Inverse folding.
């Protein structure tokens, strides 16, 4: 029930401000992590990036989706790099990319450099 309330709040927020990037991105994360509706999550992340390519959280969450769910590793790495291009100190992207480098590429040195 609590997730239904969260979904309702995201809808209300986006009805009032259809380009609220934070709400849209977090709504996508709700679809991804809780409801397992991965296509809807990706659609929201890409909508955010169409509005602002520089919005690092959307790149990072999209990278996580590509990495952990779809196993599209080339796209995942691209997304993580874009997130860090626009915000090199974004902790979520740093953690997710570090995990990617260790688990997928076995690149301990590059992961430690982050």
């Amino acid at each position: 029930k609590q997730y239904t309330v969260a979904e309702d709040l995201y809808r209300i927020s986006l009805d009032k401000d259809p380009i609220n990037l934070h709400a849209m991105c977090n709504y996508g994360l709700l679809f991804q992590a809780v409801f397992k509706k991965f296509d809807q999550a990706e659609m929201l992340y890409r909508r955010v990036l169409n509005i602002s390519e520089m919005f690092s959280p959307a790149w990072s969450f999209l990278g996580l989706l590509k990495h952990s769910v779809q196993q599209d590793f080339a796209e995942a790495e691209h997304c993580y790099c874009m997130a860090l291009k626009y915000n090199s100190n974004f902790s979520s992207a740093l953690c997710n990319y570090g995990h990617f480098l260790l688990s997928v590429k076995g690149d301990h040195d590059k992961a430690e450099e982050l």
About this structure: The helical segments are 2-16, 21-35, 38-51, 56-69, 73-86, 91-105, 108-113. The mean pLDDT is 95. Residues 56 and 85 are 8 Å apart (CA to CA).
